[in-house]
Fold each of these.
Amino acid sequence: MNTGSELGGTVDERVSVAGVVLDILRPTSAEDLIDEAAYEIDERLPYWADLWPSGRVLAEELAEMPLVGTRVVELGCGLGLPSLIAASKGAMVVATDWYEPALAFVRINAARAGVSVHTQLVDWRDPPPCCTRRETSHRWSHSSRSCAVRAAR
């Protein structure tokens, strides 16, 4: 993945969550990533490219939970801060999004943080079984719905 000119540049943002300090690599400007052609097809906007306040709050909540050995799925992960925190607390994490660049940044930031986060590209119009209501309530110990939290912002 090109994390430079194709994305209009990147920036490191230091984030502290409950004593865990992470240097998050993210695009410099989400606005610069808007693709008019993609928007015309299904109104996609690069919401994933920002560290949202709601994602920080969700990460803080996860940091207070006993997560060692639990399974966590983050739906609509964006840059995946909650996933990174859950993984740092010992959870087995799957971060999902419908933007491959978002997942690439999650993988980069997980490697930089020394944690393991699995990623899965998901088309929300036809989600795989891991992301359905039935599966998230039975298969996963915790499901963090970042996209729903962000939409309520």
Amino acid sequence: MTGNPAPGPTSGPADPRSAAPDGVFPLVTAPSGADTGASVGGTAVQLAELDARAAGYAAASRAPETWRAYRAGYARFARWCAAQTPPLVALPAAPATVARYLAAHADTHRVATLQLWQTAIAAAHRLAGHPVPIDDPVVRTVLAGIRRTQDRK
């Protein structure tokens, strides 16, 4: 793997904002100057530093290419939501919104692409602490119908 080394006790974390979906990272951050009183290696560690380390480990959980694909897939979904009349909420998205999004692209994109996009939507929701709309039976049923329809073409 190329790029920054995986974060660890002796190396700093990769900048999660460069890897993870925009608007999802950083993890919850503390107000500037907050001190937990915690000790690592005999020195006080501030919450902001711990947040940065946690975000670095989270960013290291996926390859940078994966985060880029997730960011692009989620950004596409968010733009589509904003372009609807009336605009739809992308985060947290209702299952019906995701089902509509998949249906809107079913005739022009392959199932594998739709699955990648829904995985990106799921990742954004999980990282933001929201329920994952792709787990809803409505979304699963719509994707199954798209898959069957495309298989018959």
Amino acid sequence: MGWAWPMCARAATSERAELHGNMAPIAKQIVDSYGALTDIRGRRLSGGGLAALTLGFERGAVLIAAVGDDDTIRVSAVPEVEGDSLSQLFPWRDAIGRGVIWVWSLTNQQGYQDGSQLEFGKPAKHDQPGQLCVQIVIAASALRRQQITKSSA
């Protein structure tokens, strides 16, 4: 019998994470004020991985970037979306038209804030999944994303 991570589990924040910037104010703005996701773009590294994502919402935009010095994550408000379009790629195509209802800051066992998790609300189209939770983690100075699925456990 395998063990599964609880869906959208909260991770503890650490003193180290606080030094790299408290994500709580921008997370609250995304949930309370930004509205539905309208566009997502990425900036690629020379090796092919993603250095950053820009999420465009109805009323704002957010940059999620890898901090190469220590492989942590930085989330900040930006004036506009930039980069190559990723809106039609999995899992982002299922997030377009949906608002973010939860944002988590992920901290690893060494105290580094190296990830974020976004849960998107009500589906905008009939062919979108009911639950959509995307985790973004920094590894080797690049963003890695994965969709979190509901466990029956």
Amino acid sequence: MTTANHSILTLTETALEAYATASYADGRIEDAATALEALVTLDPERADAWALLGVVHRRKKDLPKALRALKRAVDLDDSDRYALLNLGEALCEAKRPKEGVALLRAVVEQGLDADLAPEQHDPMTIRAGAMLEAIQLSLRAWISAHPEPPTGA
């Protein structure tokens, strides 16, 4: 690839990223999805683009595409807490709570600081913790509503 071609691709990637980010921020989800699809086609190793594409697909209620994009993001960068958090939430939405809860716990554990009050933690740690708490409350409510049958029944 020539230097000129490389420069053009870099400019294209930069423009696509800026357009996708602005579209997402403005609520133009379809435009964001189109730009991000083009971006990951140009550079399939962009974990951040895959993560945002997964979030966009979640917003579009396309869970299979969201899961694929978020999984790709985590495969490329398993330290990306944003991708881990969103993949964990998407797995829970997809009725795969065991996998989802494991990722949400990992996000909390990575961000947890025993010297801080809960509300002083970063937004991803707080969000993952809140999601885990909601899951726990839902399970407790379900268990209370479905007592075990008497033995011998």
